[in-house]
Design goal:
heterodimer, A: 244 residues, six-stranded mixed β-sheet, 10 strands, B: 400 residues, alpha+beta, Barwin-like endoglucanases, 2 domains, six-stranded mixed β-barrel, 54% helix, 17% strand, elongated
Chain lengths: 244, 400
């Protein structure tokens, strides 16, 4: 099961990263103001901040779903700002896993096919080994026997666990989770958090979690606070803190 | 391409009701096209075969006689008032050699000399105006198969024997073995034994045509050794005009194709074809627009899934192909079903229709309909597929 990602100097590095909307228009507004940050393999980091602080915008930039206006963003030490769409897509596919708040599974496919989706869009029909790997991941998130179930046949917590398995199937260097527990009850949320922590330790992937849950954020190794497009705090929790 | 095909199939299967509706739409459209095209071409074939069942593809005859006016000297002006010449019955000069030459034209499949002219048929007090047609039966059968239309007796045309139409036989009250006296305007007459009665299905022909042996007709019409017409058949009936024009130029004779003889019929056929093509075009267009609108709705419905797939690493080109494949699959499967329904409609028409004629779908109509519908499906899918591939993944994921 343990299958660590290759170690890079940094998995994620932000260098004076800026994002403006309506560039060149009178309504131009800068929402991220020169952010700097680095994540390494095995980092387990929470990104917190009030609504409208720019968390989702930052996550979209880091996930290479959007492009910064200025500055540079390195994924596994590769500068991404001037990459073409196809190159960004390939880099995202190879290195980044997503877990969304509303899981965003594809209803037309069953749980196992959803888990395999990132591999299938990359290389077509999955091999027997890949199918075994997907089954192992589903087993690891506690969904053994649910492989053939459609998302609508699963509970919210189960769907989120499928989404986690899907995010890990490519063995990404960076796992981005946008409020992965925001839509779940406390017990399920804690279990999902435990899973993310487990994969962070087993796989060595860096995890960046956007969350509003202060209690959960304190269980992370590090909490970065974003307010009005600025990092206002970057707290590294001691083992004693995180064990609570 | 496997994943694009898989996603396309899953999307189509998931939106089953929507998929079924558009498939029915495509199927009905293709069925209408298959049936209309088959019906119109069957109708045209029927009309053409009925027309050509009673006439040659090309008739070659002497040019009309015209008045010859001596040329005027320089500076002289002559005012002439003249009547057009009456056209007498004339033989084609040296028709045996002309016949041989015409037989050597590559597209000509049969040639038959004919001598024909007006006469009267008399029996007792009854007198009927007829057309004497002197033929070489063996050759003539390759032009118009009279033996296939014999309703009494046999097609035996030789010295002293004649074959006449059914309407004429009724009018004169004659039967097989009966005698008929033919008279021409030159006080020539002959008494012939009726060996066969035919029915071509055209009242005018069945009441006037009297077939005789070539030599006997020549004697009766006063054209000893002559032939007034050479009838031809060609391998491609719709190229008859081209062949006739060529013969016109080569022989200085008047060659007239069946298309020129039946120019009004040809206009009607062309109009029918145009109507059929217009119907097919507009039905195909509405099918394509149907596919485009369903896929446009599908792209809207799938916006979030497109965003997720893009976030999972799907390329723009892959999203484009997913929807193009959906268009192709809809066109392909809908047209197969439609072609089948069209085939059944043709069968129902033949079995339970008016029964005037049978129609038979061309062997090419199904592959052509399926290919055209599939291409139309792909073309119709271009705009929605392009939109899908251009969706901003961030906005798409947030789409509700």
């Amino acid at each position: 099961m343990s299958n660590p990602v290759s170690l890079h100097e940094s998995v994620l590095r932000l260098q004076d990263l800026r994002k403006c909307y309506n560039v060149g228009l009178p309504t131009e507004v800068e929402v991220l103001h020169g952010l700097n940050m680095t994540l390494h393999a095995h980092d387990f980091c929470a990104l917190v901040g009030p609504s409208g602080s720019g968390k989702s915008t930052l996550l979209n930039l880091i996930g290479l779903l959007d492009q910064p206006t200025d500055g540079e963003l390195f994924i596994t030490d590769i500068a991404t700002r001037h990459l073409q769409d196809e190159e960004r897509t390939a880099l995202r596919r190879e290195n980044i896993g997503f877990v969304f708040q509303f899981h965003h599974l594809i209803e037309a496919f069953n749980a196992q096919e959803n888990v395999l989706m990132p591999m299938m869009v990359k290389s077509g029909k999955p091999t027997v080994e890949l199918q075994q790997w997907a089954a192992e991941l589903l087993d690891a998130v506690g969904l053994k026997g649910f492989e053939g179930k459609k998302p609508s046949q699963l509970s919210g917590g189960q769907q989120q666990r499928v989404a986690i398995a899907r995010a890990l199937v490519t063995r990404p260097a960076l796992l981005l989770a946008d409020e992965p527990t925001g839509n779940l009850d406390t017990q399920t949320a804690a279990h999902i958090f435990e899973l993310l922590r487990k994969f962070n330790q087993d796989f060595g992937c860096a995890v960046l979690i956007v969350t509003h849950d202060a209690r959960l954020s304190q269980t992370c190794d590090r909490t970065v606070t974003l307010v009005d497009g600025h990092f206002t705090e970057d707290i590294r929790h001691s083992k004693a803190d995180t064990s609570n | 391409m496997w994943i694009e095909l898989t996603i396309a199939l899953k999307f189509l299967r998931q939106g089953f009701a929507q998929t079924l509706l558009i498939l029915v739409g495509i199927g009905v459209g293709v069925a209408v096209i298959v049936f209309i095209v088959t019906l119109v071409s069957g109708l045209q074939e029927n009309i053409v075969s009925r027309t050509l069942g009673t006439q040659a593809h090309i008739k070659v005859e002497p040019q009309q006689e015209v008045n010859l006016v001596a040329p005027t000297a320089d500076g002289e002006v002559r005012l002439v008032r003249q009547d057009e010449r009456a056209q007498r019955l004339r033989s084609i000069n040296n028709w045996q050699q002309v016949l041989q030459s015409l037989e050597n034209v590559p597209t000509v499949t049969a040639a038959s000399p004919v001598v024909s002219g007006p006469a009267f048929a008399r029996r007792g007090q009854a007198l009927k105006s007829i057309l004497v047609i002197g033929i070489d039966p063996e050759r003539y059968e390759k032009i118009i198969s009279i033996s296939d239309n014999i309703i009494a007796g046999e097609f035996k045309v030789s010295a002293g024997n004649t074959v006449i139409g059914s309407a004429l036989a009724n009018d004169l009250g004659v039967r097989i073995g009966g005698k008929l006296r033919l008279e021409t305007g030159d006080n020539q007459a002959a008494v012939l034994t009726i060996t066969g009665i035919f029915e071509l299905g055209v009242r005018e022909l069945d009441s006037r045509y009297v077939y005789l042996d070539l030599k006997q007709a020549q004697a009766l019409l006063g054209l000893f050794g002559g032939a007034t017409v050479i009838d031809l058949t060609v391998n491609d009936i719709f190229a008859a005009s081209v062949v006739a024009d060529r013969i016109d130029r080569l022989t200085a004779l008047k060659a007239e194709s069946w298309m020129q003889t039946n120019s009004e019929l040809m206009n009607a056929l062309k109009s029918q074809s145009l109507s059929s093509n217009l119907i097919s075009f507009f039905v195909a267009l509405s099918v394509a627009l149907g596919i485009a609108s369903v896929l446009a709705i599908s792209v809207t419905q799938r916006t979030r899934e497109i965003g997720i797939l893009r976030a999972m690493g799907a390329r723009r080109a892959q999203m484009l192909r997913v929807f193009l494949i959906q268009g192709a699959l809809l066109g392909l499967s809908g047209s197969f079903a439609g072609a089948g329904v069209g085939w059944v409609m043709v069968w129902v028409f033949n079995e339970y229709g008016p029964g005037l004629f049978d129609i038979h779908p061309s062997v090419t109509i199904v592959p052509v309909a399926v290919t055209v519908a599939t291409i139309a499906g792909v073309l119709a899918a271009i705009a929605p597929a392009w939109r899908a591939s251009r969706l901003d993944p961030v906005a798409a994921i947030r789409y509700v």
